[in-house]
Write a structure and sequence with these properties.
CATH architecture of the largest domain in chain A: 2-Layer Sandwich
Number of domains of chain B: 1
Distance between the termini of chain A: 12 Å
Number of domains of chain A: 2
Structural class of chain A: alpha/beta
CATH superfamily of chain B: Ferritin, core subunit, four-helix bundle
CATH topology of the largest domain in chain A: GMP Synthetase, Chain A, domain 3
Radius of gyration of chain B: 18 Å
Distance between the termini of chain B: 27 Å
Order of helices and strands of chain B: HHHHHHHHHHH
Largest interface: A-B, 25 and 28 residues
Oligomer: heterodimer
Chain lengths: 166, 251
Amino acid sequence: MTIATEQNIDQKLISILDTVTDPEIPVLTILDLGVVREAYEENGLINIKITPTYSGCPAMDMICDDIIKAFENKGKLAKVTLILSPAWTTDWITPKGREALEKYGIAPPLEASADKDALLGDKKIVKCTQCGSINTKVISQFGSTPCKALFQCRDCKEPFDYFKCL
Amino acid sequence: MKNKNLYNYILGIADNSLILGQRLGELCGHGPNLETDIALTNISLDLLGQTRNYYQYIARLHDKEKTEDDIAFLRSEREYINVLLVEQPNTHFGFVMARQFFYDVFHLMLMEKLQESKDETLSAIAKKAIKEVSYHFRFSSDWVKRLGDGTKESHYKMQEAVDELWRFTDEFFHLTEADKAMIEAGIGVDVSNFKEAYYIKVSEILTEATLSIGASKYFQKGGKQGIHSEHMGFILTELQYMQRTYPNMKW
């Protein structure tokens, strides 16, 4: 499922933005996460607009600071604005980001209807990040951060995180 | 103030989330087990995040320079206009879940409609919040069913909580002056329109949980006018502790 949304990022700024990662999921850059909606330079000021994953996501303040710092290191002044609309969705995580998540031990989000089945325990469809088995179960619909649920593999017995669909 | 009605309308929605978020936050480290503890604080975090979005928005409507923190921490009890339900105590886990369930059903219906608000910021906040609230509703309704249709003891406790808290649900649908003005302006949601749908949804899940709504037609109200239950003062004492102890401190 893809949702067409406007994303306006100046190609020249990508190399710097790509050095900023989510403090809670350090393998995921903010571009992979899809939270950067706009980035452009105007009169010597870099304007960045980001959208939060969850309303109360405590990582957002840190991400804002990290962006400003990353540009500061390159001798540039940046201003970060939080925007709420359109609301962030897990569909904006890039294929590269999904791959990084899985390698890191977090199962990437399924699509919305499958996600509901998985979280309600109706269907076994979330793949274990350790052994690849789909013989897994939900332990908790809420995990260590607002964006994750906790799963366990019935085969290798390892617990792992699942990135909830939003 | 530029738009008193808009301010009060949003304040009403935001105060509900603030106080419920605070109540759930009290359970941090005190949940019945680790997973539930984490879930409750996750829900609290979502609610506080939504509260911040609302407060940041209405802080700009003030004549004097105000911040979200001023609104959250520097008001007296009578100035908070949350409904009585959200300030009810965490008596036991059944109460926590019944309170959450009664609120989530309402909250979900409100966010659905608020997405269509003519006010762009409110609509954006609602579009963000509804995704989070859907998870809250799923969690609380699941627990209501599990406990209601569980053991004799869990059924008894869940029914006890439903009986005790049901009388606070009618207040959701009372319209204040600010509500009426904002409905007129196409900004607010006429919640009185979905009162029936609310009862149907709640009854449906309670029936599945083998629970019933009490027969009493007596309902409590007052929160929306700032007239709170005795619990409110205790909540604020804790909520405002830092600002009272170190006035004007910044995070």
